[in-house]
Amino acid sequence: MPNSQMTPGIAPARLEDGAYEDNFSDLHPGYAPHEALVAADRCYFCHDAPCTTACPTDIDIPMFIRQIQAGMPDEAAKTILSQNILGGMCARVCPTETLCEEVCVRETAEGKPVEIGRLQRFATDSLMSHADQPFTRAESTGKKIAVIGAGPAGLSCAHRLASHGHDVDMFDGRAKAGGLNEFGIAAYKSTNDFAAREVEWLMSIGGISLTYGKRLGENLDLATLQSDYDAVFLSIGLAGVNALRADGEDKDGVRDAVDFISDLRQADDLAKLPVGRNVVVIGGGMTAVDAAVQSKLLGAENVTISYRRTRDKMGASGFEQDLAAVHGVRILENTQPKRVLGNGKCEGIELEYTTDDGSGLKGTGEIVTLPADQIFKAIGQTLGETPEGVKLEGRKIAVTDSGATSLSGVWAGGDCASGGDDLTVTAVAEGRDAAEDINKSLMG
Amino acid sequence: MADLRSNFVGIKSTNPFWLASAPPTDKEYNVRRAFEAGWGGVVWKTLGSEGPPVVNVNGPRYGAIFGADRRLLGLNNIELITDRPLQQNLREIKAVKNDYPDRAVVVSLMVPCEEEAWKAILPVVEETGADGIELNFGCPHGMAERGMGAAVGQVPEYIEMVTRWCKQNTRMPVIVKLTPNITNIIHPAEAAMRGGADAVSLINTINSITSVNLDAMCPEPMIDGKGTHGGYCGPAVKPIAMNMVAEIARHAETANLPISAIGGVTTWRDAAEFMALGAGNVQVCTAVMTYGFRIIEEMTAGLSAWMDEKGYYSTDEFSGKAVPNVTDWQYLNLNHVTKARIDQDACISCGRCYAACEDTSHQAITMSEDRVFDVDDSECVACNLCVNVCPVEGCITMETLEPGMMDERTNTPVSPDYGNWTQHPNNPSATAAE
């Protein structure tokens, strides 16, 4: 511990050695078997259950909870995985407080929902701890499909296609699969290399090849893919990051939050990861909270999230906002970046207060200046290079409900495609549904 | 202020809560601690004849069923009567009774079905100063295979005979403990009465297998790969016990036979319910075996508070008070019409009432697109299933239709008159209601 929380500038090793392991341990540790039974007993097995309706992947939640109650966690896992092959990751990262658990009738009744996410984790962890993924491949169809991007949408699509007997070639630009599961989720939500283990487990169905270092527009060409394959699925995510549009944002110390999170997830030794003494995160979504909380856990002394609207408009759920608060992150609402201060490297930031009288957000002219050695931009991501010939809707690839793009033989899903929230679980649903549509279109 | 002191067939105790004959009352150490905790009386664990004591299995004696958080709901046992020497038990009974004169000490007995055996044991028990005896005609396992316990309790003639021997050979009050492993509880109760019993106590445990070990393919508790049926008790058996108590209390011939109620008494309320159905006191076992003796504090405080609230001074004032309202089905008022009502403010929209009614009953609950559940009076037969499956207490209730109101199911106005099956036109042997 050569440095401390007070060390000026951006520095590694601000904490004692053991602190990192504690700080980045599992946010929601798995249930012990008896705990799971007690938690499962709280489920009322609702008719036409609201939780299932709220789940983007339509998991039969009352049924899997009943299977846990009946002492069959592996069967519960199969119920989950048949709808959502990344049920293990979703159990960890889903904002359940705004999905299944928000509409749980016990949330309505008592403000204390059945802990569906943790129960799902109990079931999927149980199965994954001792068994391969439980699905088998149909007889080979001889069809070949290219999946571009090995994130949640791509993995889900590839697995479903493989189960139908198709051969899948999956390509990813990075050196590791998993997409945001591997590079973009806060470390305390996916411990013990879970994302990588889940990919390996998913791939064990067979029939899926994975090639790294391949990017559309760099060394992959859509037209070629279309001619080489029976179908193409684009799950390329959002490669671009929005600019701050504040003076001085090119100064050293100003970075994209997603890059910081990615570095953190891939770090072998968190003590070696530098972080500012005073950190300011610009944005209001999950990425902003993930970057802010992890900065704090790395030893930053002061961490502030600056969000331009009021807290209730934040993309991050109430649970995430509370998580930030519990870790000592200050949320400064109604402020927007005006100017990054510093000579070459950033030393502070001027934030302007905002107001919205109904005619749109405006700066009030009142400025607050915060010291900032490090500024993370978490104000949304954009589609990188648009694949040639594909129609857009807004700033994303336009798709039908079943994921078909404007190009024949090309489907898309996940964050790059229109519709749905940018969540892991939505991406899984879109990949799965596109796979079903591809299968239908290929097999007639 | 309620007075919980109890006088059951002349046996006085500080409250109506006795510990039933079972492991908690097998020895002086336990019974002294029970009395210190506040128990009103004990029925000492069953003594057998002089001679080598019985032996118990050396593997597990109990099996159980649980709620989700391992709340013990039902317990079964294959333990036999006391396996300690008779003289030791007698010495201890005498010592305890001497030190706790205000508590009831009743001694449970089970000896072979021969008059000599009973004649031999009664005086030595009497000599301890015990307040009474309870004849164990109920134990369903082990001892029954040797012609004792339930083997006697299942034959009314034997009950009558042994009870008479006891009444003729002791001055102590005789309580006959009945087995529920019969088809009609009235027969053994009447037999006990004919034999001169001062009271009956019921129920003893119910023949049961609590679970099967699916790996060993053997019932639990498993003794070296084999299992046997045991006696079931605990909260799960309370409804069965209450019915048997009520049957005796409302049967003309046995109506005045005092009853000591046993079967799943776990809180003060269970005791109040048994007593409302005609019991003079209650005996508790599984609840103390689960939670220890201290629960007596909740029981006495709860019963006392409830009596104060209701204005009862002594337990005699409410004992049997519900008996007149226990009747045969044929006398229930068929002109009494109720309909389910769902309190929309309390409803949490789980839809369990809908699933239950739609799948298994009368399709009388409707569900809207936005999950509002309502009762269709034209289909509702007022079965109460929705009330019972609803997880929110008080959310669904049964509303009584006043005379003259239209019953939409039958399209007839509700009759102001009482009308039962014996008077119903569909009953071939109906007597016309005049």
Automatic annotation (TrEMBL), chain A:
Identification of the protein by name: dihydrouracil dehydrogenase (NAD(+))
In this chain the FAD/NAD(P)-binding domain maps to: 144-431
Source superkingdom: Bacteria
Key words of the record: Oxidoreductase
For this protein, the record's Pfam families field holds: Fer4_20, Pyr_redox_2
A molecular-function term among this protein's GO annotations: iron-sulfur cluster binding
Role, per record: Involved in pyrimidine base degradation. Catalyzes physiologically the reduction of uracil to 5,6-dihydrouracil (DHU) by using NADH as a specific cosubstrate. It also catalyzes the reverse reaction and the reduction of thymine to 5,6-dihydrothymine (DHT).
Quaternary structure, per UniProt, is: Heterotetramer of 2 PreA and 2 PreT subunits.
Q: Which reaction does it catalyse?
A: 5,6-dihydrouracil + NAD(+) = uracil + NADH + H(+); 5,6-dihydrothymine + NAD(+) = thymine + NADH + H(+)
Phylogenetic placement of the source organism: Bacteria, Pseudomonadati, Pseudomonadota, Alphaproteobacteria, Rhodobacterales
Instruction: Fetch the PANTHER family from UniProt.
Output: DIHYDROPYRIMIDINE DEHYDROGENASE [NADP(+)] (PTHR43073)
List its EC numbers: 1.3.1.1
**InterPro entries found in the cross-reference section:** DPD_II, FAD/NAD-bd_sf, FAD/NAD-binding_dom, Helical_ferredxn
Major enzyme class: oxidoreductase
Residue span, Dihydroprymidine dehydrogenase domain: 22-129
What species does this protein belong to? Halocynthiibacter styelae
TrEMBL record, chain B:
Q: Name one GO cellular component term.
A: cytoplasm
Q: What Pfam families does the record point to?
A: DHO_dh, Fer4_21
Give its E.C. classification number.
Answer: 1.3.1.1
Record's compositionally biased regions (Polar residues): 420-434
Which chain positions lie within coiled-coil regions? none
Which residue ranges are recorded for the region named Disordered? 406-434
Q: Which NCBIfam families match?
A: PRK08318.1
> Into which family does the record put it?
Belongs to the dihydropyrimidine dehydrogenase family.
- Name-wise, this protein is dihydrouracil dehydrogenase (NAD(+))
